[in-house]
Amino acid sequence: MNKKYLTGLFILVQTGILCAADQAAASFFGFSVLSAGLGVGIAASGCGVGVGLCVASALQGIARQPELSGKLLMNMMIGLAFIESLVLYALFIGIILLFANPFKSLMG
Asked: Any idea what the CATH number is for the domain that residue 51 is in?
């Protein structure tokens, strides 16, 4: 990985931890925000790699056999829809962690 990328990620994580270290409830909310943001970011980056590989493979298949382009494009679009649904699931979990956190009652 790029050193600047890792440094920026480290700074963001440390900032989230330091901002959340005031009180128990504030730290719980801070860690919820941090986990929601990291979860959506990791899911989006992983799905981005998957989308890139899917499109590259479909284009290579079309280049090899142009007569199958219709089938390949249809299957690629179905695969892209499944890949993108994973990002939406991560986003919904992040929103639940931020606004309707089921663990909030455990913290007092």
From this structure: 1.20.20.10
